[in-house]
């Protein structure tokens, strides 16, 4: 294959972002590695923003996809019954839902995470007859108007061009400094119980158990349990957005499992197809499945090749707890490496954050995180930043990366931190 000789960026909208952070033309990818056109290898600790939990071009899933396409199986079918659809639903039920004591029904709302969130918000409002949604500071739920209304980032919200209404932000866990010693949900509970607060009775609360785009902010088990109890007490539905942190990213398949809570509605996307193909699910408790036939739909509500790879991914990686244990173990390696950096550079006010293989290194001087990410890129490692001021170096490597790849990436980060903080 010949190298691209023409710069096509002038043909593309200026809204593009990742190509600015990593200004090379990528050509191939395998596992935890991406290759530029000139053959330069880049270790990928970004993994499609969490869409490639099982690596690029996973060989097993690739063969499933090739076999599916080569045998003229159905590719597009709206929501008609197909073999691939039935196999995915049965596999998901048998291997994911039933072993966890969940009886949620599966809705295919459209191809992306924002579609799953929109369906969940719309359903919650239909069920309760209420308009308001409670969301949390630094949340990210998508770029469509409904999802954007419950997102915290001011830059992204500003792009809407119209008022984003019917959502009320509340403090996420540890939003206040420890010195303030504010009880969990003090503000929210007071507003809900005070007839003079002006807060419209909410239909639902939407939450990420670990905020990715918000800065790798992990909610405590006790906080999540308290939120679930508050929702029941106040007759609000609980929506857990597991689009980035589900599919094993924090260890268990669902990020809320550790807290022992059962959300009313769960949103999944990104790695649910196992191969980076578009697919999204909105899971709803049976008694909440009240949409009329066709009341919510979309042209690509269920991409059949993604059903095939998604079902095989579940069979391959979620028939036992091996991947769960591996993810926890690898996450502890990152935590140890980040804790060592925190201790080594006390004046930099570093903070190690995260769970499983969703990890972050927060910098007291926010610009330093971006500088570290750039240094990593020059050394052959792809990492992004997150947080309201991009103050966190964010790691989302494939769950299937090898120990050697993990340690090599951590060495690159350590060298990059040393270069930036010694400048």
UniProtKB/TrEMBL annotation:
Keywords: Aminotransferase, Pyridoxal phosphate, Transferase. It is an enzyme of class 2 (transferase). Pathway: Amine and polyamine biosynthesis; ectoine biosynthesis; L-ectoine from L-aspartate 4-semialdehyde: step 1/3. Pfam families: Aminotran_3 (PF00202). The keyword Transferase applies. Its cofactor is pyridoxal 5'-phosphate. GO terms for molecular function: diaminobutyrate-2-oxoglutarate transaminase activity; diaminobutyrate-pyruvate transaminase activity; pyridoxal phosphate binding. The keyword Cytoplasm does not apply. PANTHER family: DIAMINOBUTYRATE--2-OXOGLUTARATE AMINOTRANSFERASE (PTHR43552), DIAMINOBUTYRATE--2-OXOGLUTARATE TRANSAMINASE (PTHR43552:SF2). Belongs to the class-III pyridoxal-phosphate-dependent aminotransferase family. This is Diaminobutyrate--2-oxoglutarate transaminase. It comes from Ruania alkalisoli. The gene is ectB.
């Amino acid at each position: 294959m010949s190298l691209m000789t023409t710069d096509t960026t002038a043909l593309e909208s200026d809204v593009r972002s990742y190509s600015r952070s990593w200004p090379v033309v990528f050509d191939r990818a395998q596992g935890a590695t991406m290759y530029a056109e000139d053959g330069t290898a880049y270790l990928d600790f970004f993994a499609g923003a969490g869409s490639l939990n099982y690596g690029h071009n996973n060989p097993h899933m690739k063969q499933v996809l090739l076999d599916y396409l080569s045998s003229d199986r159905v590719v597009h079918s709206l929501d008609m019954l197909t073999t691939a659809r039935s196999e995915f639903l049965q596999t998901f039920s048998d291997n994911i839902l039933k072993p966890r004591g969940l009886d949620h029904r599966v809705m295919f709302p459209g191809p992306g995470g924002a579609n799953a969130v929109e369906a969940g918000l719309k359903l919650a409002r239909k069920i309760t007859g209420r308009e308001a949604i409670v969301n949390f500071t630094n949340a990210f739920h998508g770029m469509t108007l409904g999802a954007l209304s419950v997102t915290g980032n001011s830059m992204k919200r500003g792009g809407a061009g119209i008022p984003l209404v019917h959502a009320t932000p509340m403090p996420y866990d540890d939003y206040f400094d420890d010195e303030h010693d504010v009880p969990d949900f003090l503000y929210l509970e007071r507003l809900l119980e005070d007839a003079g607060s002006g807060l419209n009775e909410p239909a639902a609360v939407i939450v990420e158990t670990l905020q990715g785009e918000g800065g790798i902010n992990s909610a405590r088990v006790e906080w999540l349990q308290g939120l679930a109890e508050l929702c029941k007490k106040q007759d609000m539905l609980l929506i857990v957005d597991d689009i980035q942190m589900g599919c094993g990213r924090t260890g268990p398949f669902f990020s809320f499992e550790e807290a022992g809570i059962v959300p009313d509605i769960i949103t999944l996307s990104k790695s649910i197809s196992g191969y980076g193909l578009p697919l999204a699910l909105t899971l709803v408790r049976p008694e909440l499945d009240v949409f009329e036939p066709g009341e919510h739909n979309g042209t690509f509500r269920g991409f059949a090749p993604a059903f095939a790879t998604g079902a095989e991914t579940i069979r391959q990686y979620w028939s036992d707890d091996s991947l769960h244990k591996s993810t926890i173990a690898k996450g502890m390696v990152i935590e140890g490496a980040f804790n060592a950096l925190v201790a080594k550079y006390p004046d930099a006010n570093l903070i190690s954050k995260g769970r499983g293989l969703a990890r972050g290194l927060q910098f007291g001087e926010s610009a330093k995180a971006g500088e570290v990410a750039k240094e990593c890129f020059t050394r052959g490692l792809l990492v992004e930043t997150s947080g309201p001021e991009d103050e966190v170096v964010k790691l989302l490597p494939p769950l299937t990366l090898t120990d050697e790849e993990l340690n090599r990436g951590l060495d690159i980060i350590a060298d990059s931190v040393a270069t930036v903080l010694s400048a």
